[in-house]
Design brief:
Structural class: alpha/beta
Number of domains: 1
CATH topology: TIM Barrel
Oligomer: single chain
Shape: globular
Largest sheet: 8 strands, parallel
Distance between the termini: 34 Å
Helix content: 25-40%
Strand order of the largest sheet: 1-8-7-6-5-4-3-2
């Protein structure tokens, strides 16, 4: 499949911070999203939980649909759900630009990636901390982004699992320059350098952004730390 035919705004390799909506103030979502967009964010990470694949429930199509008209950010939806193929169209229609689904829930990841592309948006594959890198090798040519979980999905505020870093490096070695390698879980100023040095270029950060008095300054500091580590 020639992914170049798709509009892929994140094809240029550079350090990007993806603030996680899960850590925003749900009473003031629009204001919080406007704040990080004005602070230079390109991506908004949307953690969708179904209460089955992961034990918690977060938000879904209605919240994304209402938020979409108020932001030009790239909506990166992480589907922590059992049936991504069943709900892909609804999330695409709600305004998501990319859907990432877990390798742990399917034996046909290439088919799901093809279904997502047919909706006119991008596809990504996710793997949990204990899932080996080679579990996603076959689907790598068919996705624009790989998301490595550095905590267990379903709960915010967990500590960074450094044991996933060799997996990040193994995946990075197999990706094209236009493919992004994202990491999610425990990303903050003190951990982002390790992840960048391992090969990640896109960093999901929740409380490290939305929990700060100045989210824009927090993003700039993390970008600087990641850039320095990645260049070392």
């Amino acid at each position: 499949m020639d992914l170049c035919r798709y509009n892929w705004p994140l094809a240029a390799p550079r350090i990007r911070i993806a603030p996680s909506l899960l850590a925003a103030d749900f009473a003031c979502l629009r204001a919080d999203v406007v704040k990080v967009e004005a602070g230079g964010a390109e991506i908004l990470h949307l953690d969708v939980m179904d209460g089955h694949f992961v034990p918690n429930i977060s938000f879904g199509v209605p919240v994304i649909e209402k938020l979409r008209p108020h932001s030009k950010l790239y909506f990166d939806a992480h589907l922590m759900i059992d049936e991504p193929a069943r709900y892909a169209e609804a999330f695409a229609k709600a305004g998501c630009d990319l859907l990432t689904f877990h390798i742990e829930v399917t034996d046909t990841p290439r088919k799901i990636a093809e279904q997502i592309h047919a909706l006119g948006i991008q596809a990504g594959i996710v793997l949990n901390p204990s899932t080996p890198a080679d579990a996603v090798f076959d689907v790598l040519p068919d996705v624009e982004l790989v998301l490595v979980m550095s905590v267990w999905p379903g709960f915010g505020g967990q500590s960074f699992i450094a044991d996933v870093l060799p997996k990040v490096t193994a995946i990075r070695q197999r990706l094209r320059p236009d493919q992004r390698l994202e990491i999610d879980g425990g990303i903050a100023l003190k951990t982002i350098g390790q992840a960048a040095a391992a090969g990640a270029d896109t960093f999901v950060a929740g409380t490290a952004v939305f929990g700060q008095a100045d989210p824009a300054a927090a993003m700039r500091a993390m970008q600087g730390a990641a850039a320095a580590a990645g260049a070392a």
